Amino acid sequence: MTHQAPLITPDVLIIGGGPAGLTAAAELAERRAGQVLVVDREQNAGGIPRHSDHTGYGLRDLRRVLSGPAYARHLVRQAIRAGAEIRTRTMVTDWADERTVHVTSPDGRYRIRPHAIVLATGARERPRTARRIPGDRPHGVYTTGQLQNLVHLHHQPVGKWAVIVGGELVSWSAAVTLREAGCTPALMVSQYPKAESYAAFNAAGRTVLRVPVATRSRVTRIIGKGRCQAVEIEHLDTGQRRTVACDTVVFTGDWIPDHELARAGGIALDEGTLGPLTDTALHTSRTGVFAAGNLLHPVDTADVAALDGRHVAQQVVRYLNGEARSAYGIRLLADPPFRWVAPQILRPNDPAPARGRLLLWSEEFVRFPKVTVRQDGLTLARRTLAWPAAPGRVFRVPADVLDNVASIGGPVHIGLH
Predict the structure, then answer these.
(1) DSSP string, 214-232
(2) Residues in CB range of 202: below 8 A, 6 or more apart
(3) Does an H or E element contain 78, and which?
(4) Which of 15, 61, 205, 400 is paired with 223 by a 20 to 30 Å CA distance?
(5) 353 CB-near residues (< 8 Å, 6+ apart)
(6) CA 133 to CA 240: how far, in whole Å?
(7) Residue 47: inside a domain, yes or no?
(8) What's the rounded Cα separation, in Å, for the pair 145 and 151?
(9) What's the 3-state SS for 9-76?
(10) How far is CA 89 from CA 45, 185, 246, 289, in A?
(11) Residues 41 and 113 in one domain
C-alpha cells in the first residue's frame, strides 16, 4: 500500500528566502493574508546578501544602508515579526499538481498545497563550465557567489593573485572580497568597450582598489595543473593573445534565473530572461502562481528585488480576495539592442509594474537612449532618457510610455531609435 506524504495547507507559500521572498512574506503577513510560509533550501534565509560582506544594501527599500549580512538578518527578522513562518534546509523537489509541491527537509518529506504560490528562487552566475572556457581544470576557479561563500561564511583562504572575468557591479564586489581575503585583483576582463558597471563604481574600483580593466577582451584558456597558474586573454578587435599569471579566477555576472522549478511545472518561460513569463501584476501562466525578484530579471540589486516582493504581495492579496484577472493581454517585446523586457504582458486593469518601471537589458552602450514604443506599425511613444543604456545592468524605463497602447492591438515593440 502506497502512503501519501503528509500535507500542509498554508494560505501562501513563498519558495525562496532571499530579499524578494522575505519582503513579500513580511508584507503578506502584515496585510493578514492568512498563514504565510517561506521555504528556503539554504541553512539560513537571506539569500545572496548573507555572504556579501560589504555595505550598500537597503537603500531603496529600507532608506538606509547596511552590509549584506546585516540586511539579510533584518529581512528575516522583519518577516518573522510580521507573523510569517520560515523553514530553512527545505527543498521543493517537484510539483504534485498545479498547486501542490513536494518538499524534502530535515523533518522528512511532505507536501504543501497553498491557495497561492510566489516563486522567488533568484538567479545565479554562469560558472566556467557553462561559459565553455577551454583549458585545464585546476583549483582556484570560482563564481562570485562561491568566492564570497568561501571567504565570508567559511573563512577559508583563496589565492594571492586573481583575474576577474566580467565588469558588472558584482565584479567589483568580487574585487572587494578578494582584497579582504588577502588576494590582489590583478586584472578585470570585459568584452565591452568599457566595464559594464556604473561609471562611479568603475572609477572607484580603478582608483581605490587599483584594479586595471582589459576591455574588448575575453579569457580563452585557463592554465594550471593542480592549482591555477595563468589565463590566456584575447583582444576581440585585434585577435592578439597574451598570458596573465594568476592563481585565482573569478567568473562574475552573466546571470541565469534559477528557473528549474518553474520549468518542471510547465510554467511558461520568457525566451529573453529565461525566467517565468509574467504580467505587470507578476502572475505567471499558472493561475495562483506568482513570481518576483531576480527570477524574473537576472540580475538586479537586492533592494529592487525586495521592492518586487512588496509589489507581488499586493497582487497576491488581490487574488486571495477573489479579484479576477483578464484572460487577454498584450505581449511586450524587446527589439535590438535590447535582449529582454520584464514584465512581458500588459493586461487591462492591471497595476503598473513594480516601481512604475519597465526593466530592459541592453547589449550595447547608448549614452542618450531614445526609447521608442511601437504597435501595429504605429509609433506610440518616443522618449529620450537622461540615463544611459549599458550592458551588464538593468535599464529602467518609466511605464507610462505604454499609456497609448491599444488593449485590442498586436504586440508592443520596445526599442531605441
Answers:
(1) E-SEEEEEEE-SSB--EEE
(2) 167, 172, 194, 195, 213
(3) helix 68-82
(4) 205
(5) 280, 311, 343, 359, 399
(6) 17
(7) yes
(8) 10
(9) CCCEEEECCCHHHHHHHHHHHHCCCCCEEEECCCCCCCCHHHHCCCEEECHHHHCCCEEHHHHHHHHH
(10) 9, 34, 36, 22
(11) yes
Strand partners, 245: 230
Is the peptide bond preceding residue 39 cis, with omega within 30 degrees of 0? no
Pairing of strands 85-87, 161-165: unpaired
Confidence band for 5, pLDDT divided at 50, 70 and 90: confident
Strand order in the sheet with 394-398: 338-342, 357-362, 394-398
pLDDT in tens, 171-222: 999 999 999 999 999 999 999 998 877 665 555 566 667 899 999 999 999 9
Q: Domain total for the chain?
A: 3
- For the domain that residue 78 is a member of, what is the CATH number? 3.50.50.60
Mean pLDDT over 246-260 rounds to: 96
Q: Is 344 helix (H, G, I), strand (E, B) or coil?
A: coil
SS3 262: helix
Residue 318 inside a domain? The answer is: yes
Owning domain of residue 379: 354-416
Q: What does the mean pLDDT of the chain come to?
A: 94
For 91-134, what is each residue's pLDDT tens digit? 999 999 999 999 999 999 999 999 999 999 999 999 999 999 99
With a cut of 50, say whether residue 1 has pLDDT above it: no
The reply to whether 30 and 114 lie within a common domain is yes
Phi-psi region of 247 (alpha: psi -120 to 50; beta: other; left: phi over 0): alpha
Kindly give the pairing relationship between strand 345-346 and strand 330-334: antiparallel
